[in-house]
Amino acid sequence: MRYIGSLDQGTTSTRFIIFDEVGAIVSQHQLEHRQILPRAGWVEHDASEIWHATQEVIRVALERANISGADLAAVGITNQRETTLAWDRESGMPLHNAIVWQDTRTQAFLDGLTPQAHNSIRYKTGLTIAPYFSGSKINWLLTNCPEVEQAVKSGRALVGTMDSWIAWKLTGGHNGGLHITDVTNASRTLLMDLETLQWDEELLAIFGIPISILPTIKSSSEIYGHTDAAGPFGAEVALAGILGDQQSAMVGQLCLEPGDSKTTYGTGNFTLQNTGEQIVRSSHGLLTTVCYKFGDQPARYAIEGSVAVTGSAIQWLRDQLGIISHASEVEALAESVSDNGGVYFVPAFSGLFAPHWRSDARGAIVGLTRAATKAHLARAALEAICYQTRDVLDAMAQETGLQLTQMRVDGGITANSLCMQLQANIMGIDIIRPVISETTALGAAYAAGLAVGYWSGTDELRGQWQIAKRWQAEPDHPLRGAGYQNWQKALTRTLDWV
């Protein structure tokens, strides 16, 4: 029997999952990596640390499944989007820490762009002008790192998002590795034209980026090449799928038709709605992005609402405040009180993303009284995740005119039943979690498997999708009315603090 492997390189961890032909998990292994915070607003990762973790999670997952790399029909990659790295093609080593999508150091550069540049970027890319995306991060590396500048001059520099780094290393690295990305990741750089699906000369000029250092843009599902037999797989395995993590979750949730929508709860929170072959340019603070492209088929597009801090708010309670020892403890702590005690938490640690797009916003906790406890703060943190999601879904409804009656969800927070019930009550719709909750990794596996014929097509995949749990909204719940109004008041405090 053969299997499909999926390498999920996320913001806080890297994991490798092995799936069988019915999409069930056979084996997996996961390792966290450090969050490097040099100064306020800066977030970095050590790409060498991530590569070491990548090798280890592959080795352990194969060992646990009692198989070898040769037993894999193909492997796919899904990754934290926008996080950007420069490395040396000759030494194979990073030239600087990767700059993470949450990083806001490039705001001043973006503020200095001309109105004409703003208009071109918005129209061609479908994105807002924000340090979230890769273009200004690449510009920062080119203009602030002598090692990168010198490597560019000598023709040694390669730049890409984390999918490019992992693909390059897996396929041989400095011994001939592939320098590639897919359309979903490229669509998050501020450098790719949504219509042509290619790097755009005008956009490259705006950011001062030579095209020679960028990866070749590929579809999300095709045989790009094979892994290096000397690498962690110990075999030449077809590398056949690449998707940014949120688009990969769309594929994993089988949201393949126009109107289909899902929300992924990870470090951040991301809601996407499939718009088919139509490019919908938002006027309500949402993003237009490539949803996926399978081989030679036309690209499918989506609108997206991105929230910077959701799961990482729980990590903050654990790591910075110490009110829980493990993330899993937050549900019981929050459930020990009947409500938030008037406490509202807006975790704008990296500014506010959709639909507000205010990088100058900062986190706030309001409504504190002497009676407030850590349990109230824990409950307020879970409610904040849900209120931010509603902000995005309300904007999406304004954009498309479509009101959701239910929402498919995935990601770590969906294991928190209280949070999902709060989400249902705040939005007034049913929340549905599939049997396979690791849909981000599953989407990359699907893309890779389709490319090599492991699965016959998307109809076969649709037959595998099953509901694990449904949370039903309670009628006229107070969180939907007064609670949400109070949240909006708290939100204004994060914008007014400066």
Structure description:
The structure is a single chain. 34% of the residues lie in helices and 23% in strands. The protein has 498 residues and is of the alpha+beta class. The strands form 7 sheets. The protein has a 7-stranded mixed beta sheet. A hairpin with a 3-residue loop joins strand 1 and strand 2 (13-19). It starts with a strand and ends with a helix.
Beta-sheet strand percentage? 15-25%
Q: Report, as a whole number of angstroms, the end-to-end distance.
A: 60 Å
- Helix fraction bin: 25-40%
Number of strands: 23
Biggest beta sheet summary: 7 strands, mixed
Question: What is the typical, i.e. mean, pLDDT?
Answer: 93
Poorly predicted residue ranges: none
Helical/strand content category: alpha+beta
Number of helices: 16
Tertiary shape = globular
Strand order of the largest sheet: 17-18-16-15-21-22-23
- Rg over CA atoms, rounded to whole Å, is 22 Å
